[in-house]
Amino acid sequence: MLSVSSVALLLIQASSFFKAGYAASDESSLYGTWSSKSNQVFTGPGFYDPVDELLIEPSLPGLSYSFTEDGWFEEATYQVAGNPKDPTCPEASLIFQHGTYEILSNGTLILTPIAVDGRQLYSNPCDDKGVSTYTRYNQTELFKSFVVEVDAYHGVYKLQLYQHDGSPMQPLYLAYKPPMMLPTQTLNPTEGASNTDSGASATDTQAVNEKRSLRTLVRRSLENRHKTSAVKVHKGFWNSDTFWYLSAGLLGLGSVMFLYS
């Protein structure tokens, strides 16, 4: 029969594996909504309203990506940059994109957006006189590699993306699972645009009908935004740090019991 100290040693070994031993780079590991450290920027209807085509400014800058297990992604970006000419006039941009993603055999991750759906809102108060520029946005993104692992400090899953030159981006942390996303289809179809903007023809009537059907779907999504099946991931009591300290406590208790037995 194992002693208390033996059990504690096994727990510490398991905790060490949990902290440093998990790492993955596949579709299943990407599944969910990931957000940067500010924890204020998330994909989904809270960032972009495709019915009225509105980008909604979060309270703090940040970055968020969502991935499904069947090859769809969504991106929400809110960036603020200082203005070297006038520090009181920072530049800001909000970017929404969604589309499909592919993981190549060498681990490269490619995000291919639906071209007609991408949107950007750019603000430069010193030059635009308070009138931001709202435009379409379409930018294919290539990441040389990515790793999903357990963050030893926060005790949650972390997504580390590496840009095309191998430099790391700011880490993203798992925020929702299942992912919080808008419908994985063309949100604002135009004549001649297919579901993935591949160039297949479509009539004006078809585009109008698709738009009307989508409006109904998205309005329902907006109305039920607080009833989403996506579950927010919290750092709870049973994280890796708690597990480690509990194991160390049991080891100490076992040592004391051994000395006095």
UniProtKB/TrEMBL annotation:
Keywords: Endoplasmic reticulum, Membrane, Signal, Transmembrane, Transmembrane helix. One of its GO terms (molecular function) is unfolded protein binding. It is found in: Endoplasmic reticulum membrane. The keyword Endoplasmic reticulum applies. One of its GO terms (cellular component) is endoplasmic reticulum membrane. One of its GO terms (biological process) is establishment or maintenance of actin cytoskeleton polarity. It is a single-pass type I membrane protein. The keyword Transmembrane applies. InterPro entries: Rot1. Residues 188-207 are annotated as: Disordered. Residues 1-23 form the signal peptide. It holds the Pfam family Rot1. Belongs to the ROT1 family. This is Protein ROT1.
